[in-house]
Specification:
single chain; alpha+beta; Immunoglobulin-like; seven-stranded antiparallel β-sheet; 10 helices; binds beta-L-fucopyranose
Amino acid sequence: MLLVKVFFKRYLFLGLFAGLLFISCNQVKPPEPLGPVPNDNQLRWQHMEYYAFVHFSLNTYTDQSWGFGDEDVNLFNPEKLDCRQWARICKEAGMKGIIITAKHHCGFCLWPSEYTEYSVKNAPWKNGKGDVVREMADACKEYGLKLGVYLSPWDRNHPDYGKPEYITYFRNQLKELLTNYGDIFEVWFDGANGGDGYYGGANEYRKIDRTTYYDWKPTYKMIRELQPNIVIWNDGGDRGDLRWVGTEAGYVGETNWSLLDSTGKVTNDMLRYGKEDGNAWVAGEVNTSIRPEWFYHVSEDSKVKTLPELMDIYYNSIGRNGTLLLNFPIMPNGLIHEKDEKAALDFAKAVKEVFAHNLVEKATVSATNVRGKSSRYDAYRAIDGDNETYWTLDDGVTKASLTINFGEPTAVNRFMVQEYIKLGQRVKSFSIEALVGDQWQELAQETTIGYKRILCFPTVETTKLRFNILDSKACPVISNIGVYNAPQILTSPAIVREKSGNIQIVPADPESIIYFTTNDEDPTVNSTRYSGPIPLNKGKVNIRAIAYDPSSGKSSAVASEQFDIPRKLWKILGIEDEKAAAIIDGDINTAWKHPEGTSIPADLVIDLGRMENLVGFKYHPNQELRKPGIISRYQFFVSQNNKDWKLVSEGEFSNIKNNPLWQTKTFKLQKSRYIKLRALKNTTGSNYIGYGEFDVITK
Ligand code: FUL
């Protein structure tokens, strides 16, 4: 009996104590939400982190980036189309959804729309009974992926484009897509709007005012009624739920606020960095392609992004408070190319390896401030693996440090941190330091965090890591911290051909050794070792190269470049400026522009030094995105004597504004010595014309 009493008393006492503690913890209220916060749809979308684009349309069959709108529907006949293959690859690659180009700018619909004849229903594929969007929806369901749709507002096929009637057509199509294919997680309205087109045979230029023409408000209302869980991406008109980041190269600003103003002009800087004091939650989505272009081009089979490139994209998108929308161009047969599949799966494996062991799991943590000294907000909450718990501080405290003690020297090179964004994005600046011996060393000083921030730094052996919040809009709320030791990945070397014809191979890491081949075979450590410029100044040449690190025995992915004839004999005519040599120096980063005052049309005339069998040319714009000087419409002439010129190609460099890469144009064989590239228009409507690099293609 006595024993029972003692037990009873003890447990009563302990119970009371625990109860009091529980009450006291709960008495400390959580911080109030700060400023704009994400809604449930935006939160759900942000948590997806990584999902796919697939680009497939008539362009796939015409080798174009943008169809004109008059391409023949009979071209669309993929003999092996298999959306299940696309879904399987995306699933295995760790993606959470797929956005399909249901209609690109050419106007061709991948579903049998009731409102146009320009669709799969008139294509030979499945005798006009096919529906790619349906097959995609079914495949997504089977693989547990979400489905999104890209519907281009610009329609170069439709006769009414530019008139009010087209808006009804556009809404009808949208309604079909949002009604007949189950849940849609995201709808994508591309920003390219208006310009030349077929327009039902009018073949003309149609300009629209993208801020008013589409009358987005009623359209948004309809979208939200039909798909209450959707997020809207819109680069063309009214602010959607998320934003483009101003480039298609695969990164967002290091400073990245998930905020913008709900109205008013959005500058390129705002797309890139967000707006610290914006009044609406509009987080960034990084869209990029696994190859240079969005649609499939066989010429890009050797241009699939390498593992180091994809890893950089990961750190510069998901690692900078963005989501990653990675595109697969579908081949004419209806499948994703095996090289793209391999690249995506290797990428997924490498990401998994980086984050396989969170080193904080074995560490202890302490903080300089904990809200109300409550265990509910303790530093430990940032490493407990639960995204719904967090470390936070007393109201008004905007500076604090959290120390991670590993207890023993530990090699680290990645730091991951997340804010609890349900309460708003708060942190303005932070740093991390490592205790090496008895010295604290600063590893990084950065600005925003947001949903997720990942920092990469050279491997350091440390016993303690200190995360310092240096400034915050209000008390910071940190839900998650991770520390990792990522395995080293060697970057492929760069291969360039100088004007002399010599080939240079430049390793990213000077300590690595380069091996190369010229016979189309992949190099190994038994191939020729690179020791200096290769004097290959005769004809065309294909170089493949790897970097090899002797200390780890690891090799990089294969870099491959195809070069046409050497440019040793070439002379730029009619331009006195010596700096114009930058146009043919083999380096896309050195550019030349016609001097101020030159007006369009502006010509680049080159004497190739001897007759060549020309079948095409290549133009690479200036690399400064959105700077004036990028040619968007051109004519290309050839001549045997520099007097009588023949026009052999003319048209547009589609999408060059957002994706300023090599533009390749081909034509029928021409035996010529002189070429003239005539710029008719640039992307900004000014008179500036520039060139990063120019080359020809010979037979
Ligand atoms: C761009 C388009 O013009 C490209 O063709 C592509 O669809 C890309 C995703 O968006 O602005």
